[in-house]
Specification:
The mean pLDDT is 96. Helix content is 28%, strand content 28%. It starts with a strand and ends in a 5-residue tail after the last helix. It is α/β, with parallel strands linked by helices. It is built from 6 helices and 11 strands. Bound molecules: glutamine. The site of glutamine has 13 residues, from helix 5.
């Protein structure tokens, strides 16, 4: 059984659940998806991996750090404590990992330009080089961020036109595109394999 916590603040959550379910079926792994809505969900669950969906990082910061819902600061601290837990952070999720904007260290060592390609109208799809996955991967970029810099400890895992669009630091994968919307399961399969302790 692999338990995956899904950060439920805002954005593309349900497509992640559907993609995870397909990936787990393909791998033959029993899956439990745990919706993370409050700090209590982090304390009461055994989590083998976390998915931090895309959406709108400003909205996530607001919905996740207020008097009613304080998930975000707890999640950042949880990730700092559980530094080996695999994470797949997509788009706005990648922005928040790189720039948590709290007093702690970034959760991946990179800096990000939030709307680096322009507006919603500049969204696009493109085939990416992801050497770990072998064949090119279809990237869906929706008002996507761009990495300004990738620092020590983080390695490029996905490239578009010679530009880094995905990084890995230990077991954390942070990508500027939406693998849950491409119909290609390989990033979710990758996460599940990491969660099982496979050396991928
Ligand atoms: N650019 C968006 C932001 O600032 C992220 C877009 C996305 O997650 N699709 O949060």
């Amino acid at each position: 059984m692999v338990s995956v916590g899904l950060v439920m603040l805002q954005g593309a959550r349900h497509a992640h659940i559907a993609t995870l379910e397909s990936a787990s079926e393909e791998l033959g792994v029993d899956l439990e998806t745990i919706e993370l809505r409050t700090p209590l969900d982090l304390q009461t669950s055994e989590l083998d991996a976390i998915i931090f969906p895309g959406g709108e990082s400003t909205t996530m910061r607001l919905t996740g750090s207020n008097d009613l819902n304080n998930l975000l600061p707890s999640l950042f601290e949880w990730l700092r404590t559980n530094e080996k837990t695999p994470v797949l952070a997509t788009c706005a999720g990648a922005i928040l990992l790189a720039q948590p904007n709290d007093s702690g260290t970034p959760l991946v060592n990179a800096t990000v330009n939030r709307n680096g390609y322009g507006s919603q109208a500049d969204s696009f799809q493109a085939m990416l080089e992801v050497p770990t996955l072998g064949e090119p991967y279809p990237g869906v970029f929706i008002r996507a961020p761009r990495f300004d810099s990738v620092g020590e400890g983080a390695q490029a895992i996905a490239i578009h036109k010679q530009e880094v669009v995905g990084i890995r630091q230990e077991n954390r994968l942070a990508v500027t595109f939406h693998p849950e919307l491409s119909g290609d399961l390989r990033f979710h399969t990758w996460l599940l394999k990491l969660a099982q302790g496979d050396d991928v």
